[in-house]
Design a protein that fits this description.
By secondary structure, this protein is α/β, with parallel strands linked by helices. It contains 13 helices and twelve strands. The chain is 38% helix and 18% strand. The chain has an eight-stranded mixed β-sheet, with helices on both faces. The chain has a four-stranded antiparallel β-sheet with strand order 2-3-1-4.
């Protein structure tokens, strides 16, 4: 009887977080040629339930680009009719989102606890944070740098051989709740550091000479919500008086051209910039930590998905940073390393022109704080699975990304300032 109950519970849990309500939902990719097309998509978005995947919002669509968006099941016919009537070219990336979400869990590792090749729930990640620090006291220490809106501890791992005043690289994952591959990378990074220290020359050198601050999940409340209520949730889970809409986009909440471009002032939007810069406890905690450690932090890496991009500032403006030639060369070399493993193609460049303008991002903010090497990774894929990247791709994604991260870290070590 007990076995039967356990199986039923597991089945229910899987059905729940893969989301019954995604049954029949589609993800479409529309080709946008000109302003007329952009206006049509805006018209479409105002009358139907549309969740923009890439770009993040209707305001960021530009001519000669493609737009990926999720359509509610009851709106798919109307949306496809509209596209056809207006002769907009489109393809169906995902025909039934529920099936793709269920297929995410295709890893044959059915570990009950933590696994580096599975997507882990927050309580599993939190237990892992404590365990990995306790098991590797010579390489890892953990601290709590703040609490989330819902009162959870924001954990930070410091990875490296103890030595005073070492230069540091800051890496964060899990800004946007639904980008599950992102926290998977931070966990993988820590695993590789621990298992390769003393064995792999470059890893050993980097950990001896640098500290790595790793923030495994920034938006913990949102991440939990994607496991329990809505797999496609993006924002934080903060509430404020005067609106029933929940959450702020933490990556529009930094004091870097705040709310000027590619961010929304409407609390209901996915790119809502918040009531003020650092209104979110999560962004405030991260910013406070970096400000406090500015003298040692020499690089800032933030990990997102999807699109296969390596971006550097600026996103809040079309201006270029003063060391843009250096950042461009470094991005090019890092991408070359990444591609060398499995042939995964990445595009690199400044945020605003390479992807779209977006104000209030952490990478621009970090750069403006004086951190010369500031990058955003957009991991796999390019839209076949989007935010529902299967577990079977975790290992390859993390392995190739690690090559780029190590390349950047080594460059920083050789160009200290």
């Amino acid at each position: 009887m007990l076995v039967f109950l356990v199986l039923v519970t597991v089945a229910l849990a899987c059905a729940h977080h893969s989301g019954e309500h995604f049954e029949g939902e589609k993800v479409l990719r529309v080709s946008v040629e000109d302003e007329t097309h952009i206006n049509l998509i805006q018209e479409l978005a105002s009358t139907n339930q549309i969740d923009f995947w890439k770009p993040d919002s209707v305001t960021q669509i530009r001519p000669h680009s493609t737009v990926d968006f999720r359509v509610a099941a009851e709106d798919t016919d109307a949306v496809e009719d509209f596209l056809n009537q207006n002769e907009l070219q489109y393809e169906v990336l995902i025909n039934n989102l529920r099936h793709v979400l269920e297929a995410q869990f295709d890893s044959h590792v059915r570990a009950t606890g933590h696994s580096y090749v599975k997507y882990n729930k927050w309580d599993t990640i939190e237990a892992w944070i404590k365990q990995v620090a306790a098991a590797n006291p010579n390489l890892i220490s953990s601290s709590v740098i703040g609490t989330t809106f819902e009162g959870r501890s924001i954990h930070l791992l410091k990875v490296g051989r103890a030595k005073s005043n070492k230069p540091a690289v800051f890496i964060d994952c899990g800004f946007h709740a639904r980008e599950w591959i992102s926290p998977a990378f931070c966990q993988w990074f820590v695993k590789e550091a621990v298992s390769n220290y003393g064995k792999d020359t470059l890893t050993t050198k980097l950990l001896n000479e640098l500290d790595f601050y790793v923030l495994p999940v920034v938006n913990i409340d949102g991440y939990i919500y994607t496991w329990t209520k809505n797999r496609m949730w993006r924002k934080t889970r903060s509430t404020k008086t005067g609106t029933t809409c929940v959450g702020v986009d933490p990556n529009r909440n930094f004091d870097a051209g705040w709310c000027k471009l590619g961010a929304s002032k409407s609390p209901c939007d996915d790119t809502y910039c918040g009531s003020a810069p650092e209104s979110e406890k999560e962004t405030k905690a991260l910013a406070n930590f970096i400000r406090k450690n500015l003298s040692t932090i020499k690089a800032y890496l933030t990990v997102h998905s999807y699109s296969q991009l390596l971006l550097y500032p600026y996103s809040y403006d079309y201006k270029l940073p003063s060391n843009s030639a250096e950042l461009d060369a470094l991005a090019k070399a890092a991408v070359k390393q990444l591609t060398s493993l499995y042939g995964t193609k990445y595009t690199y460049g400044p945020g605003a022109t390479t992807i779209y303008p977006a104000a209030g991002g952490s990478d621009d903010w970090a750069y403006d704080q004086g951190i010369k090497y500031s990058f955003t990774f957009e991991l796999r894929d390019t839209g076949r699975y989007g935010f529902a990247l299967p577990e079977s791709q975790i290992q390859a994604t993390c392995e190739e990304t690690l090559l780029a991260v190590k390349h950047i870290a080594n460059y920083v070590l050789e160009h200290l300032y």
